[in-house]
Amino acid sequence: MTFSKTLPAALGERLSGYRFERDALGRSAASVFRLEGEGLPALYLKVEAAGPFGELADEAARLSWLKAAGLPCPDVIARESDGERNWLLIGALPGADLVSASALTPMARVELLAAALSDLHDLPIASCPFDHRLENRLPTAKARMEAGIVDEEDFDAARLGKNAAALFDDLMRLRPGNEDLVVTHGDACLPNFVASNGKFSGYIDCSRLGVADRHQDIALACRSIASNFGEALIRPFLERYGLTAPDATKLHYFQLLDEFF
């Protein structure tokens, strides 16, 4: 496709021989392209507008850290920016994401998600340099709202018709009094976890990884499971993860917080 003509020279040379195919899955603000070529390894290229709310630099840093921590994720191959756009080139993991992995039963996919989150949450928080506790995330949510980039038309059904300012007031009023801190993925939805041959093969879309309450991940995972497979599989997910009685108020809270990202 002609998109390759707009690449920085260094990336254009590196990607000679590749075909570009737009990847529409997911909710990232970046444009994502899968790259394939004869005899060449599959890659992904992400492109975003440069600016204060860009996430590709965050993703590159987190993928590098996660790889060093010994957990599976894409290799960071190259980063470029021209001041107007940022590019991130990463390797492709084997297999398919947990929405698309139709060779596996929904139960198997839910169990893989639970195990992957458990492994991530077992990492020592002192080793993680990315701090996403509420004292840091709430100011970011407010800044995104004030910049006009919170999509009120994309709110969950329960909150459609409300405005971001009212929801932010709820975030401040309902803020939990304590945080059960772990290393969280930050966007723990089924499309962001990949499986191959029946086994987990890695974490993707990791730009929001950081130390936060474990309910940050559990809340979004439960919502994603209900949306894709039905609410009946939430209980098996929680049992496999080892949290049979999650804090319902925190589940609601972190789903509310996610409306701003």
UniProtKB/TrEMBL annotation:
Gene Ontology BP terms? response to antibiotic
Under InterPro entries, the record lists: Aminoglycoside_PTrfase, Kan/Strep_kinase, Kinase-like_dom_sf
Q: Which reaction does it catalyse?
A: kanamycin A + ATP = kanamycin 3'-phosphate + ADP + H(+)
Q: Where does Mg(2+) bind?
A: N192, D205
> What EC number(s) does its UniProt record assign?
2.7.1.95
Stated family: Belongs to the aminoglycoside phosphotransferase family.
Protein name per the record: Aminoglycoside 3'-phosphotransferase
